[in-house]
Amino acid sequence: MSTSLLLVTLFFLSTTISSSTSPNHFTVKLIHRDSPHSPLYNPQTTATDRLNAAFLRSISRSRRFNHKSQTDLQSGLIGAGGEFFMSITIGTPPTNVRAIADTGSDLTWVQCKPCQQCYKENGPIFDKNKSSTYKNVPCDSRHCNALSTNERGCDESQNVCKYRYSYGDQSFTKGDVATETISVGTASGSPVSFPGTVFGCGYNNGGTFDETGSGIIGLGGGEISLVSQLGSSISKRFSYCLSHKSSTMNGTSVINLGTNSIPSGTSKDSSVLSTPLVDKEPQTYYYLTLEAISVGKTKIPYTGSYGTSSATTKGNIIIDSGTTLTLLDSGFYNGFGAAVEESVTGAKRVSDPQGLLSHCFKSGNAEIGLPEITMHFTGADVKLSPLNAFVKVSEDMVCMSMIPTTEVAIYGNFAQMDFLVGYDLETRRVSFQRMDCSAGLGL
After folding, report:
1. Its pTM surpasses 0.70
2. Please, where in the chain does CATH 2.40.70.10 lie?
3. For labelling, which of 51, 100, 347, 369 has a CA lying 20 to 30 Å from the CA of 213?
4. Any idea which fold 26-64+82-255 has?
């Protein structure tokens, strides 16, 4: 998923969708990839197996965000990297497709017939020749030019814009850029249709894509993402509420789009915190500024190197619902990790048996005392619960769900669990409000 990016992989439960007037707000349920309701659920794997797989995806994903690797920055998914899945319909008559909803991708793409090469897919593959609303995008159009130069091409003989994405695990997708009617089901069952939506019709796709899904739903910040195209119809606002229980039978996560999707707290409501989005390239990603992290009462400036007096860099961390772990600059992490270790009581520091997590603690029969960790974003001091910052890997062992990286820093979805996280793309702010997301409503 990293090499993919919510990597929300969001799963919209409605599967029968027809034309409808676009509302100003709608809410959709999400299903975690490890939930028994998920088509990817494997009852033979243990909870530890599933955690380790998610951690590996987090580490792999961080490499995709490295600005030095432009071909891997383009978008989407590597392997089976998302955490939630989304169903939409596309075309007229509509074809049901399931894809990863990814805040780290812009162009929405699905597999398309006729295929030159398509990977095996459990569901139906969209056939553009059977849709009355399919229309190719010309090479000189604004939508074609919204793709970077190494993402786009042109069939000059037919004046058809082409796209091409490759990913870090050698997966790839190539096809035509087109417009179609895309419809989304809501939690209430009322369908919403969006005619003329730009998407990629992929007829040459391969690699490690999972046969459960058909492609990517782009929810990033670029011009051709689904969120950007819906624009005023959702008041340029969306939010999600991810439940830590959503990998079990009892929890349901949701995504909200529209006017009422953002927490409505006033300036006097301390439960709603907000921080500015920072405009940086590539515009796909949502950048925040992390100024410091507190471990208990010890506040450590986040300057990329522990103990230095250099100024905080604006836009120094990407918020990503699709990455499980939080990845912090390795120059900062050593001192931060030491502060956490000093604050843990009732346990001794041990190595992660899988070699993935850097700070693990084993208690024997004693109860482990864990410190409160606070993320100090610009204007927003977000206090994390132990579930946000630590993960139980066995009955007597917990590990910190934050690891060092030499790539871009990422604020992952463990840290966001049981917060309503709102994106206001008009005012350019991200908000956080603590709540129980297992109710499945978000708002």
Report:
1. yes
2. 26-64+82-255, 263-434
3. 51
4. Cathepsin D, subunit A; domain 1 (2.40.70)
